[in-house]
Amino acid sequence: MQYCRIGAFKFVQHSYPQVAKKDAHAHSWLHLSVVQEGCYARKLGSAFKTYSSGAVSLLPANAEHEDLYATGSKCLHIVIPSEVEERLLRAFSTRGFPTEIPLLLSARFSVALHREFTFRNDDSALVTEALLLDLISRYANVRIERSSYRPAWMDSLLEYLDDTFQDDWSLEAIAREMCVHPVYLCRVFSRHFRCTLGEYIRELRTLRAWQLIGLGQKSIAGVASHSGFADQSHLNRVFRRRFGVSPGQYRRLIREGRLIPPLVNPVQESLPSRTVPL
């Protein structure tokens, strides 16, 4: 376990060489969890949720839950002080925090938080609070945008893609899940996102790979598998075409501290820019 304080925030990094289970318990603080490697499962009330590598989740204060960590898992937990939690609730009128943040919003934030933990300095407390405020505000804006300006089934589609982009998929299966015709689904999706459904899913997979490398995942082959690529060669081709460097080169730059992740991420109406996130 690695532990440090950054201002009023507590950062705790746990590694689990064997399966670890924690029976029902609660914390008196809000905390954010980033799964760096492996798999983490949480039972919260009657709901059981599994979080794979790269997942970012929030757990409310005083929420009774059970934890299960798979062998080889590594997680970064950030304890959020009560005054920041209250500020988040007041600022955004949030009735409850999301149990998982979509990848397009969370990827750069999780890498930036991990960087503050790894290369902390006198500005890290301010940067951490700004990251959390920006993340929750963007999440709230996306929820409003999804529900107000798009067909009702589009919200379900985006949530479905958030959960399944690593899996094999077919247009017919996705359209059947949404109860719409495949041609109509493609036309409406392209109009709202200015890209095809296939391009959107490829972007999610590539962004997940970028995130996992930034979070320190050791194996490029493992990154490819967790991101939904057929193999490491497939990831190398797509990653280099997308960012201009190979996954291995990008990992070396991250380890040397030569690339600084941005503090914000594009809102979900549009895909990230076609350059390496600096």
Describe the structure.
- The chain has 278 residues and is of the alpha+beta class.
- It folds into two domains: 2-146, Jelly Rolls (Sandwich); 150-255, Homeodomain-like (Arc Repressor Mutant, subunit A, Orthogonal Bundle), CATH 1.10.10.
- It is 48% helix and 20% strand.
- The protein has ten helices and nine strands.
- The protein has helices at residues 82-92, 103-118, 124-149, 152-164, 171-178, 182-193, 197-214, 220-227, 232-243, 247-255; strands spanning 2-6, 9-16, 20-25, 30-37, 39-44, 47-52, 56-59, 65-69, 73-80.
- Strands 1-2-9-4-7 form a five-stranded antiparallel beta sheet. Strands 3-8-5-6 form a four-stranded antiparallel beta sheet, with no helix packed on it.
- Helix 2 runs antiparallel to helix 3 (124-149) and helix 7 (197-214) packs parallel to helix 10.
- The longest helix has 26 residues, at 124-149.
- It starts with a strand and ends in a 23-residue tail after the last helix.
Record the SSE blueprint.
Blueprint: E1 2-6, E2 9-16, E3 20-25, E4 30-37, E5 39-44, E6 47-52, E7 56-59, E8 65-69, E9 73-80, H1 82-92, H2 103-118, H3 124-149, H4 152-164, H5 171-178, H6 182-193, H7 197-214, H8 220-227, H9 232-243, H10 247-255
Antiparallel strand pairs: 1-2, 2-9, 3-8, 4-7, 4-9, 5-6, 5-8
Helix pairs in contact: 1-3, 2-3, 2-7, 7-8, 7-10
Distance between the termini: 29 Å
Number of helices: 10
Globally, the shape reads globular
Helix- and strand-based class?
alpha+beta
- How much helix is in the residues? 40-55%
Q: Kindly state the number of beta strands.
A: 9
What is the domain total for the residues?
A: 2
**The first-level CATH class name of the largest domain:** Mainly Beta
Question: How are the strands of the biggest sheet laid out side by side?
Answer: 1-2-9-4-7
Q: Per DSSP, what share of the residues sits in E-state strands of 2 or more residues? A: 15-25%
What is the chain-wise order of helices and strands? EEEEEEEEEHHHHHHHHHH
**Low-confidence blocks of residues:** 262-278
Major sheet description: 5 strands, antiparallel
Counting copies of identical and different chains, the oligomeric state is single chain
